[in-house]
Amino acid sequence: MTITSNKLRRTFTIRKENSKFRTLEMSKKEFDECDYNTILDWKDFLTNEIGSYYEVRKYKTINKKN
After folding, report:
1. From CA 66, how far away is CA 63, in angstroms rounded?
2. CA terminus-to-terminus distance, the chain
3. Which residues make Cβ contacts (< 8 Å) with residue 36, sequence separation at least 6?
4. Sheet of strand 53-58: strand arrangement
5. Which candidate, 15, 20, 28, 34, has a CA 20 to 30 Å from the CA of 60?
6. What residues form DSSP beta bridges with 6?
7. CA distances from 11 to 26, 28, 63, 66 (A)
8. How confident is residue 63, by pLDDT bands cut at 50, 70 and 90?
């Protein structure tokens, strides 16, 4: 899982396995607090905060055979 912050828009992009999610815009206080989240906090966020984020993209898995 990879987390990227956008300080201008006060959102976070969460890349997990084959999917990419983005939080809705947050208040400055909420954004600053989330900036200290651990990976476990973000996993909990994705499980419990439905409606506070949306799926941006689902990646296709490519199987390469040598």
Report:
1. 10
2. 27
3. none
4. 2-6, 11-16, 19-23, 53-58
5. 34
6. 11
7. 6, 10, 32, 40
8. low
Q: What's the whole-model pTM score?
A: 0.82
> Is the alpha carbon torsion for 54, 26, 2, 37 positive or negative?
negative
How many other C-beta atoms can be found within 10 angstroms of the C-beta atom of residue 63?
Answer: 4
Per-residue model confidence as pLDDT tens digits over 27-48: 999 999 999 999 999 999 999 9
3-state helix, strand, coil in the chain (%, to 5): 25, 35, 40
SS (H, E, C) 22-51: EECCCCHHHHHHHCCCCHHHHHHHHHHCCC
